[in-house]
Amino acid sequence: MRLPRFDYLGPDTLDAALELLATHKEEAKILAGGTDLVVRMKKGLLKPKVLISLKALNELSYIKEDGKEIKIGARTPLADIIASDLIQTQANALAQACEKVGAITLQHYRGTIGGNILQDNRCFHYNQSSFHRSGRQPCHKDGGKICYARDEADRCNSTCQSDGATALMALGAKLTLASKGSARTVNLEDFYTSDGIMPFAMESHELLKEITIPLTGAKSAYHRLAYRSAIDYPVVCAGVLLKPSDTKKEEIDDVRIVVGAMSRSPLFLAQASSSLKGKKLSDIDAFKTAADTAMNSASAFAVHNVGATLAYRCEMVAQMVFRALKEAAQAADR
Ligand SMILES: Cc1cc2nc3c(=O)[nH]c(=O)nc-3n(C[C@H](O)[C@H](O)[C@H](O)COP(=O)(O)OP(=O)(O)OC[C@H]3O[C@@H](n4cnc5c(N)ncnc54)[C@H](O)[C@@H]3O)c2cc1C
Ligand code: SF4
Fold first, then answer.
1. What is the DSSP string of 273-330?
2. Phi, psi of 236 (to 5 degrees)
3. Residue 125, ligand 2, Cβ within 6 A
4. Ligand minimally distant from the alpha carbon of residue 127
5. Ligand nearest to the CA of 167
6. Is residue 178 over pLDDT 80?
7. In whole angstroms, how far apart are CA 228 and each of 102, 285, 287?
C-alpha cells in the first residue's frame, strides 16, 4: 500500500499553520502523529493534496493547571498524559484511557491527544484496502448509497473508537478550536454530528488547539474491552466521573457515565448518570442498576461494525460501566 502524492508543509508557529489552513481549507489535512491519518491515506480512504504538519509546534504541547482547570495542548503526546501526576490525580480516567491506546510505541513516539480525539470513525466494512473495497458496491462513506452495517440506513453509522474522547467526555472536557484571527470553545458533547462520514462539527479551516478539563474534586475511572491488550481498538469502553457530596462525604453528588465504541460519538448517558445522585458511595446495587440502564440506553445506538457481535458488545457495556463506577467510588472514598 503506497501513500498518494501530497505536498508537505511544516509551519513553525501556530499562526503560520492557521494561515496555511485558511489558504488550503478542505484540500489540506493536519498531520499530528500520523498514526490514524497515514494509515487511512495508505488504504486509499483519503487523498489530501496538502499535509500541514504540527511537528514543529511545541507551543501546542503542554499539560498545565490553570485556576480550576487543566489545560492540555492538542499536540501533547499520549505518553506525556500517561506520565503526568496532575492527570493521574485529577483526571485519572484520561491517563487510563491513553494507556490503553494502541501500543506503547504508538503512545510514546507518535500518537497525540488531538489526533486521538479527531481520528476518523471506523467500520470493518470500510477500513479495508482499496483492493478489498473495489470488489463490491461503495457504501455511503465511500461515496455510494448503501450501508453494509445497517440495512436501509440513510447515513453512515461508523463508530467512534477513540479511548481519549470517551474519557474526556466523562470528565466534562471542552475543546478550543482556532482559525485565522479567531477561536471558539465547545463542549466535547456538542462537538459531534450525527453522520459517521463527517463525525465532527468542525470547519476545514479550524484546528484543535487545546483541551480543557474542569477541576471539581471528582474522581474518575475508565475501563475498556478489546480483543487484545495491545494494538486493538476498543469494542466497548466506559468512562465515569463521580463527585462525592461536599457535606456528606459518603454520598454521591454528581455522576457522568459515558460509553464509547458503541455509536458515531461517545454517548453521555443522562438517565443512568442521574440515577446515582444521592446514593451512597458503597451502594453496589445502585451501581448495578445504573450499569444496566446504561446498557439499555447505549444498545439503541449500536450497529454491528467493529468486530465483536452486537449482542456481546451490548452486554459488555454493563460490565465496563459497573467496573468504572466501582473504581471511581473506591477512589472517592479514600
Ligand atoms: C495499530 C493501531 C492501533 C490503534 N489503537 C487505538 C486504540 O486502541 N484506541 C484509540 O483511541 N486509537 C487507536 N489508534 C488510532 C491512533 O493511533 C490514535 O488515536 C492516536 O492518538 C492518533 O493520534 P495522531 O497524533 O497520530 O493522529 P493523526 O493521525 O496525526 O491525526 C488523526 C486525525 O486528526 C486530525 N488532527 C490531528 N490533530 C489535529 C489538530 N490539532 N487539529 C485538527 N485536526 C487534527 C488529522 O488531520 C487526522 O484526520 C490506533 C492506531 C493504530 C495504527
Ligand atoms: S456504517 Fe455503513 S456507510 Fe458507514 S462505513 Fe460502515 S458500511 Fe459504510
1. HHTTTT-BTT-HHHHHHHHHHHHHHHHTT--S-SSS-HHHHHHHHHHHHHHHHHHHHH
2. -160, 145
3. yes
4. 2
5. 1
6. yes
7. 10, 30, 27
pLDDT-based confidence at 265, cuts 50/70/90? Answer: very high
Calculate the average pLDDT of the chain.
95
Provide the pLDDT confidence category of residue 105 given band limits of 50, 70 and 90. Answer: confident
Alpha-carbon distance of 251 to 246, in angstroms, equals 9
- Domain edges within the chain: 1-56, 61-119+159-333
Among protein residues, the one with the nearest Cα to ligand 2's atom 4 is 156
Q: Report the CATH number of the 1-56 domain.
A: 3.30.43.10
Contact 63, 87 (CB under 8 A): yes
Residues with C-beta less than 6 Å from any ligand 1 atom: 29-37, 39, 74, 78, 100-102, 106, 110-112, 114-116, 118-119, 161-164, 207-208, 231, 233
In the prediction, which pLDDT does 129 show?
86
Weakest mean pLDDT among 18-32, 66-80, 96-110, 267-281: 96-110
Q: Would you say 97 and 164 are in contact if contact means Cβ atoms under 8 Å apart?
A: yes
113 CA from centroid of ligand 1 (Å): 8
Query: H-type helices in the chain, by residue range?
Result: 14-24, 37-42, 78-83, 85-90, 92-100, 104-105, 113-118, 130-134, 163-170, 270-274, 284-299, 310-333
Residue 38 CA, ligand 1 centroid: distance in Å: 9
Task: Tell me the mean pLDDT in the region 292-313.
Answer: 93
Mutate to test the pocket of ligand 1, among 9, 18, 26, 30 (most ligand atoms within 8 A of CB): 30
Q: Which CATH architecture has domain 61-119+159-333?
A: 2-Layer Sandwich (3.30)
